Amino acid sequence: MSGNKKIVILLAAGILLTACKTIILPDAYNFTYRERQINPYGCWMNATLFPGKDPSLAPIVKGELIWMNSDSICMLEKDHVVRWISTGWVKEAQLVTHKNMSNVYGNATAFLLIPNAVGTAINFNDYGGDFLAIAIPLAVVGLSTAFIEIASQRNILKFPKKTVLEDFQKFARFPADKPLNIDFKDLTFKKYKIKTPRRHKNGN
Description:
The chain is of the alpha+beta class.
């Protein structure tokens, strides 16, 4: 395999890697950093439990963090379904505070590399090296930025590796005292709204 072909393969692999996600969560809970500041809902959380603590619970409980204190955690698994977990049952936990930007950097890099990739494929024998010479610096900058974002995972709280479980509390739907006038079983998930184009005043 020639050196140029290896470079093409490495660039493609790098772009694919930037699309990897640590936690799978509903689109409605993939908040941007700004949305998180004004968002009335809790963040998405995965909790891995110690075996045998509660046979009625799955080994991993996933859902919106509704409320917690030093003893208990309440998570909304789906509409009108809540799960109460003792903090002592939690072996590991992850909470997504806001959207990771690695996909944005990776997609932007991939989009900008399309003309160079097409040029390399069409003129591989004659001018492929010239197209790669242009593409490589762009790919290095874009993918490096994406990889740094993936590696840092600043948008994910991890217990017990990076933080204590109590730090999750401020990202709950109700971060303070448990509200007395609200039945948690009445709660529903945040719904994902598809943005529609704005219409001009003339109706066009």
